[in-house]
Amino acid sequence: MTSAQELVAVFDDDGTPRPGAPRGLVREQGLWHACATILVRSLDGGRVYVHQRTDTKDVYPGLYDCWAGGVLADGEDPAECAERELAEELGVRGVPLTPSFTARFVDPPIRYLAHVYEARTDGPFTHQPEEVAAGWWMTLDDLVEKVDDPDWPVVPDGRALFHQWLARQEA
Question: Which entry of 16, 67, 70, 142 is 20 to 30 Å from 160 by CA?
Fold first, then answer.
């Protein structure tokens, strides 16, 4: 089965679950779906793990991202998805995930509900070569500066979610 054929959890505009749909159809028709996304911070909380997406990604190829994550499979729990995605993309397993918030993101045709988590670890990291071209640590202050720079090539959803995460930290 190709990734375009994988069944993704989809929802009505009001959040009511619908039968799953193939990932390709979700992308093509801009169906509401859900994802789990994880901000990986160092154990001391001062650094964030950032990565560059591969040029072969179907969404936002080659851009930088401070979130690991992906879409929920049909019938999958958000926490299970977060654990799976963290293990697949960065090779991180067995690290506690702290739920942070949920938020809608829209960048037509992309429309999804993000289940946002935070993980604390100092690694090690093993990148999934199909998704992650390179990864490195940034201090939280440096990441704030980069994300605030409209010319920094960061994924739009990552920028939006980071601003929401940061606002919650400052509240």
Answer: 16
* 10 belongs to a structural domain: yes
CATH number reported for the structural domain that contains residue 145 in this entry: 3.90.79.10
φ, ψ for residue 118 (rounded to 5)? -130, 140
Task: Evaluate whether 86 touches 38 at the Cβ level (below 8 Å).
Answer: yes
161, part of any domain:
no
Q: What is the pTM of this model?
A: 0.93
Q: Can you tell me the distance from the alpha carbon of 113 to that of 128, in angstroms, rounded to the nearest whole number? A: 24
Domain extent for 66: 3-152
pLDDT tens per residue across span 128-154: 999 999 999 999 999 999 999 999 999
